[in-house]
Amino acid sequence: MEPPGEDFIIRLNYFQWKPLFEKVKRYELLINVPKDYPVTNFEIAPEAEEVIQDIRGDEASFSLNHNGFAVRPHNSKVTRFNKSNVENTYLKEIEDLLKNEVDDVSEIFFFNWRVSR
User: Fold this and answer.
1) What's the CA gap between 46 and 63, in Å, rounded?
2) pTM as predicted
3) On the CB side of 45, how many CA atoms lie within 13 Å of its CA?
4) CA of 6: how far to CAs of 9, 70, 108, in Å?
5) Residue 36 sits in the same domain as residue 9
6) pLDDT tens figures, 10-30
7) In this structure, are residues 90 and 78 in contact, taking their beta carbons and an 8 Å threshold?
8) Is the pLDDT of residue 75 over 90?
9) Which of 106, 39, 101 is nearest to 68 (CA)?
10) Domain boundary pick from 28, 57, 86
11) Which of 65, 91, 102, 117 counts the highest number of beta carbons within 10 A?
């Protein structure tokens, strides 16, 4: 178990709502587009400062049902994250982890995953 750290104050970036989204879906293009074409139709901007709580040492007290997230240990067999390793090994590991965490799950679908560069 890691020793507890300190909480800290940070300014996070948030999605900015526009009335446009009541009629048009938000999008972000992940391909090369002409210079004059918008890559996205939404904005992300910093909001007010917030306290981020350090939960080290208290991870087991968080659950998907109560908190909307869970922190679980996982040692992946993947040491190099590339498309092949993610598709052939890592996604299966995460699927198994999720099935152990969530009751009555018959199928898990990974949508639009990417390896960060």
Assistant:
1) 28
2) 0.61
3) 7
4) 10, 20, 35
5) yes
6) 999 999 999 999 999 999 998
7) yes
8) yes
9) 101
10) 57
11) 91
